[in-house]
Amino acid sequence: MKLYQTLPVLCLVAAVARGSLCPEYCDCYPGENNTSTIVTCRGGNITRVPTDFPANTTYLDIEFTNITKLQEGDFRRLPVLTSLRIFWNVQLTKLDVETFSVVPTLTDLSISNCSFSKFPSGMLKGLEHLQTFDGGHNLLEMVRSGLFSHHPTLEMINIWQNNISHLEPGAFAGMPRLKSILLMNNMLTSVSETAFSGSPNIQSLTFSFNTISRIDKDAFVGLNRLQSVDLQQNMLTNIDGVFGELPDLKALTLTNNVNLLDSIHNATFGSLPSLANLFLDKNKISVVEKGVLSHLKSLQQLNLGYNEIVDISLTGLTSLTELYVQDNRLSSFPSNMADAAQLQVLELENNPVEEPLHAGQFSDLTRLRRLTLDNVTSLQSAGTLDPRAFCGLDHLYLLSLRYNQLVSLSPDTFTCVPQLTHLYLDHNNITELKLGTFKALTKLTDLYLSYNQLSRISPGTFDGLVKLFFLALGGNNFTNILHVAPALAGLPCLDIPALDDNALVYVGPNSFPDNMAIDLLNLSGNKIRIIEEGAFTARAFPNMTRVWLDEGNPLHFLPEKIVDGLPKFLTLTVGDDPFNCDCQLKGFATWLRNQVNPPNAYLVCSSPAHLKGKYLKDVALEDMTCNCDHEEAPSIDTSGSDNYTDEGQAAILNCNISGCPEAEFFWTTPTGAMLAVGSGFPRLEVQANGSLVLDDARPEDTGAYSCTAVNYRGKDSKEVFLRVGGG
């Protein structure tokens, strides 16, 4: 049968389902194989449970109504109902104990996001097939014995996000099939020894985000199949003896207990032969006794981060694969590393380690794949790295060395770790990258060098990084694009070079090497005042789709064809840049309107006053004018500039600019640094009148200084030579 022949049949089925067989304010849909019905009743017009449901209803959802009470008979004549969901009925506060007795076929019952302060004991009686119960997000204050206890088929109970402060003795007792209880986000203060008695098959207990300060030592006795206990964010002070004989326990979470024990000793954990994951982070632990965890032969992941631990030994941790000891008070690196030869992840950041990082420091950890050493005291003191420090780590793929005040790196620093794919060197004080520093890292995909003191990177610095995808160079001291862009040549996979938050002032023609793979060029947050025609060409950027120029670049105009000819270009992000919607921007506006598929360029006018706040696309071209009697390219006059000054004295170099419309300008120093108004360069200040003021002159300041001015009609550049005497 063809599709057009089946459509009337399907429409007829839907019409019947939604018609006379479906209650008002409800939707009825065919279930699996069209042999059952799914019903959803919704809306404030419903004030009591509807009647006359299809007899073959298997799933019923009642939500967002004004029902206040559920009572016996509400769900009568639903002989095959298996799932009942009563959701987000905030007026609903009461139910009769016999409400659900008429639907013994239920396997899943949810009464969540309502306003019940209690459920009557016995309300689940007779539901001999019930497997899951969800009473989450109500106002329950306690769990009474008899509500769940001794239920023969329940497997999962979810009563999270209530106000439960008390579990009556035996609250979850006598439930042979119960596997999971979720009690997080309540107000529990204790767990008694009888809470789970007679429910031997419980596998998962979640108590996170309560205020539990005490757990009876026998609370978990007999739960031989318990696999996971989550006690995150409670107020435990002592857990000695609580976790004794639990042969199947695999995961124990004790994260962020406000007043937890201050040490881990022999009595802390008993026989836990299956424990694989132990989370003790964000507590106040200061002492971990040597070998205290060595009996946990299955332990693979140990998180001790954010404590006050002074030293740690890896004695006996033969199965450990992940160790997190970040944000502690370690004075030395972990000892007895040879015992943890299986370790793959080691996080040690933010520790006052005074032990020097010596050659082969981690060589016993031959399987190590991730190592973080951010903000480590001994590295900060050294200012550099032993070039053999990481030897022996043949499988290391991630190395983080952030916030270490590193000033320099030997070209051999990473020779021993050729498998690296991610290298984090950001937030240091690196001033120079020597050629060959990264030559061994042919598998590197992500390199973070942001927030250092780099002002120049030599071409060839990144040679051989054939897989490099992301390169972070933001927050450095680049002022001249030609001091960094040539180094990006020959990187066939480089997709995103981040040059944001530097001090670039000018992007001129042919600034970038040919045939780059770049998709996104991030120049946000610089001090760019001028971008010339030819800065972004198809020859350099055949694959580029996006350029970011927002977040503070003081651009007032753009060249007419700034992205013309880029075959894949989609978006020019200019955000809050202070554009003048005048004659200098008219060419770009015209170009945009002439494109069949123009790129996204949501440019907002900052001036003139009558256009402020308007999108460029909404400005009439005839309104984009300049107040010029005669438009002309800028012309520069440097007369009156100082040509000589003594060491320690000041010098003023003039740059008087004529021409209309008003030009943007910048200075270039003898070292190639480019400066504009607000550049914030040491001892050099560009003033609004065009002058460059040099303070505390030094002999190395001798040389040619060039002033360049650009408007949309053209540009001019003049040099001034300054000599600084020896004093």
Structural account:
The protein has 727 residues and is mostly beta strands. The protein is 5% helix and 22% strand. The strands form eleven sheets. The protein has a 21-stranded mixed sheet. It has a five-stranded mixed sheet with strand order 38-46-45-41-42, with no helix packed on it. Strands 31-33-34 form a three-stranded parallel sheet, with no helix packed on it. The longest helix has 16 residues. It is globular. The N terminus is likely disordered.
What's the layout of helices and strands?
Blueprint lengths: L2 H16 L7 E5 L6 E6 L14 E7 L5 E2 L12 E5 L6 E2 L12 E5 L19 E3 L7 E2 L12 E3 L7 E2 L12 E3 L7 E2 L12 E3 L7 E2 L12 E3 L20 E3 L9 E2 L12 E3 L7 E2 L12 E3 L18 E3 L20 E3 L22 E3 L4 H6 L15 E3 L21 E3 L21 E3 L21 E3 L23 E3 L7 E2 L12 E3 L7 E2 L14 E3 L22 E3 L5 E2 L2 H12 L10 E3 L24 E6 L6 E3 L4 E3 L2 E5 L3 E5 L5 E2 L8 E3 L5 E3 L8 E9 L2 E12 L2
Parallel strand pairs: 2-3, 3-5, 4-6, 5-7, 7-8, 8-10, 9-11, 10-12, 12-14, 13-15, 14-16, 16-17, 17-19, 18-20, 19-21, 21-22, 22-23, 23-24, 24-25, 25-26, 26-27, 27-28, 28-29, 30-32, 31-33, 33-34, 35-36, 38-46
Antiparallel strand pairs: 1-2, 37-40, 39-44, 41-42, 41-45, 43-44, 45-46
